[in-house]
Amino acid sequence: MRFLLSLLPLLLLLHSLPYSAAARKHNPHNNPTNSSHLVRSSCSHASYPNLCIHSLSTYVGPANTPRDLAQAAVTVSLSRARRVSSYLAQLSNSDQGTKRELSALSACIDLMSESVDELTRTLDELKHLHAETFLFQMSNAQTWVSAALTDDDTCLDGFEELDVKVKADMKRKVTNAARVTSNALYLINRLDESRGRPRSKP
């Protein structure tokens, strides 16, 4: 009797496995084909469609609705901005370059730090959308991502007249971050009330 009781949890687990697998298989929100189609259709008119598709296709997380995609795009953008910020900090610690170059680098570090803060606030806003404040929250998100994009562009402008050995690599990294952010802004702009607004609680 004790032996049978000890096997009971295992039997219950085995009994539940086929149902769980079937449920996952038939759940439309877990269908990678639907997610891939949504990514491609949503990115088709983005500023950088190929980059949009690639960055969101490799994103690990839910991306089954326009709201999911906007959050995913900001998450990717935030990750790139943090990576660039870390890269620039490493350059600054090397103390290589002229005074003018180091000054431009310092300004760029500050700008990328602001970009990280603005994207962080945007992501938090998108994760906590409410029907009653949806338009206000979306306005905040659009303003912050636009500001982050301006920070990226300003960072690049500061190095245009400088001749530094790492300029090409730095420009490539910041440009990539700016393009991903531009795509994120596009996907945020696509969120209208009927598609992005959460339902009011009864």
Automatic annotation (TrEMBL):
<dbReference type="InterPro" id="IPR035513">
    <property type="entry name" value="Invertase/methylesterase_inhib"/>
</dbReference>
<dbReference type="InterPro" id="IPR051955">
    <property type="entry name" value="PME_Inhibitor"/>
</dbReference>
<dbReference type="Pfam" id="PF04043">
    <property type="entry name" value="PMEI"/>
</dbReference>
<dbReference type="InterPro" id="IPR006501">
    <property type="entry name" value="Pectinesterase_inhib_dom"/>
</dbReference>
<keyword id="KW-0732">Signal</keyword>
<keyword id="KW-0052">Apoplast</keyword>
<dbReference type="GO" id="GO:0004857">
    <property type="term" value="F:enzyme inhibitor activity"/>
</dbReference>
<protein>
    <recommendedName>
        <fullName>Pectinesterase inhibitor domain-containing protein</fullName>
    </recommendedName>
</protein>
<feature type="domain" description="Pectinesterase inhibitor">
    <location>
        <begin position="34"/>
        <end position="187"/>
    </location>
</feature>
<keyword id="KW-0964">Secreted</keyword>
<dbReference type="GO" id="GO:0009505">
    <property type="term" value="C:plant-type cell wall"/>
</dbReference>
<comment type="similarity">
    <text>Belongs to the PMEI family.</text>
</comment>
<keyword id="KW-1015">Disulfide bond</keyword>
<feature type="signal peptide">
    <location>
        <begin position="1"/>
        <end position="23"/>
    </location>
</feature>
<dbReference type="GO" id="GO:0009827">
    <property type="term" value="P:plant-type cell wall modification"/>
</dbReference>
<dbReference type="GO" id="GO:0048046">
    <property type="term" value="C:apoplast"/>
</dbReference>
